Amino acid sequence: SYVNNMHGRGTIRAIKEEARDRNKSAELQAYLNRFKVRIVLTAHPTQFYPDSVLGIINDLADAIATNDLLAIKTLLTQLGKTRFYKKEKPTPYDEAVSLIWYLENVFYHAASTIYNYVDKHIFEDTSFDHSLFDFGFWPGGDRDGNPYVTADTTLKTAKQLRFSILRNYYRDLRKLKRKLTFDQVDTIIQEMTDTVFDALVEETDSPTVTPSLLKEALQKTREILVQEHQSLYVDEVDDLLHKVKLFGTHFACLDIRQDSRIHAQVFEILLGVPSVQKQLGMDEKAYRALATEERFRFLAQIKGQVLPEQLPSDSITRNTVESIYAIRKIQETNGELGCNRYIISNCQSVQNVLELFAMCRLTCWEQPNIDIIPLFETVTDLEAAENVMRILFENTTYRNHLKRRGDKQTIMLGFSDGTKDGGYFMANWSIYKCKEVLSALCASYGLSVAFFDGRGGPPARGGGNTHQFYAAMSSQIKADDIQLTVQGQTISSNFGTLDSSQYNLEQLLSSGIERQVFLTDKNELTDDERALFETIAHKSHKTYTAFKSHPKFVSYLQEMTTLPYY
């Protein structure tokens, strides 16, 4: 807060004042009622600190803020004596627990602080019931990123996410209980506190605490405070009510991700299982012999039920099917928002999407409550994305699925792998053009689109400065959502403390608002500028490819980088 102006340019307060000065307060309210920022936390085993270190860093930030020299000295000494890594390799569940720490101790408070400000100072007496932020979570669900993730890991992680958010609600309810000591409201808060405590200590798959139950109790408490008790402590009740709107009982949506090539392999193995062959009237050889259009039609009409115990014991096939069953189980306990997105990495064709859709329907889930998200990563895949999505939208079964999902398609674009494949400039320019083309395509089919950016960790392979990137999109790129991954050390550096988290969340919010509410033509590229970018992209791509192909490139990496150390 000393280094950055917490109320300066790019913050929500600055946006509010600019909207008022330019007579755009109504436009700002309308946009905030449909705009969302989704931060998706991803793990990288080499890039996160153990819980013990995170706790010290947090305490150290507090000590520095209050200039407590003795505490600072003691904490630095403690930090020097504490391991920054564990002797054992972390399990996928260990990675998940490490990142849940940020949800519990940072995002829970920072996101609600922003929500409270928006509700009180931008909407004032106007109704505001939009969640504003979504949080996603990859550890425990990302099979492509970590081959040791299993369906059991996914279920265990979802359970921990639910436990962590209920624990935070319990802490806040206990604080409210000390303040709301007057008639009627004291009983409601006591009952709510007891209910949440029972849910924390009881081992059950039947949820006793739901978002609607919490909202109803808190709304009733608020009404009594306003009518009978001069609105005493109503801000504290609002704060908890906003947290329930933001985090539900799932805390963060657990995304599932797997490589398209694994899905293809698993699907063919499934067609080799006698019970599946009998249900579908097709084996793997006949499937391979189908023409492209016939294959699409076959995949779209698949229904049935395959149980894990019917499958071969090889881990990948059984685990893939068990993962789909796990999604359904998580939705029963944590709500649909607890796990409703499946990302297909290395997506190259329509078949990649329809095979996953078919496998979901083979678990007796004829109408899956799940968003299937293709991830286009390489330069070639980005160029093919328009044709892949057009064929999908023309497929009646898949189009009906989108209708059930609110006529919205989420598409993920990979900065990190795109940069590794095509170089920095080519990757960024290809993604920019792809977003323009896909925005127009979705609009032509009456669909809204959300772009999910896999921005990786370091800025160089993540598309540069995040806030400037989103503020610089052209009007041809749809942007009612900002969705991006935040990885490893970027989580600790940008969102590691309450101040830095609040500041960076506000910057993301304002980058979308700035572009949509305070419309200017400064982002629109002329034909000459587009031609120039195209020339630079192809020239840089050619140079980058030649550099990677140099006969001494690999030996240079071996000699001059830290590779020998590892």
Would you summarize the structure shown here?
The chain contains 24 helices and nine strands. The chain has helices at residues 12-21, 25-32, 51-65, 69-80, 92-122, 151-179, 185-201, 211-228, 234-247, 260-270, 274-280, 284-289, 292-300, 315-334, 350-361, 379-394, 396-404, 415-422, 424-444, 466-471, 488-495, 498-516, 527-549, 553-560; strands at 36-42, 133-137, 253-254, 256-259, 341-345, 371-376, 408-414, 448-454, 481-487.
How big a fraction of the residues is strand? 5-15%
Q: Could you give the count of β-strands?
A: 9
Structural category = alpha/beta
Mean pLDDT score, rounded? 91
| Main sheet specs | 9 strands, parallel
Basic shape? globular
Regarding quaternary structure, what we see is single chain
The Rg value, from CA coordinates, equals: 25 Å
* Biggest sheet: strand arrangement: 3-2-1-9-8-7-6-5-4
The total count of helices amounts to 24
Give an account of the 3D structure.
With 566 residues, the chain is α/β, with parallel strands linked by helices. Helices cover 60% and strands 9% of the residues. The protein is built from 24 helices and 9 strands. The protein has a 9-stranded parallel sheet. The longest helix is centred in the first third of the chain and has 31 residues, at 92-122.
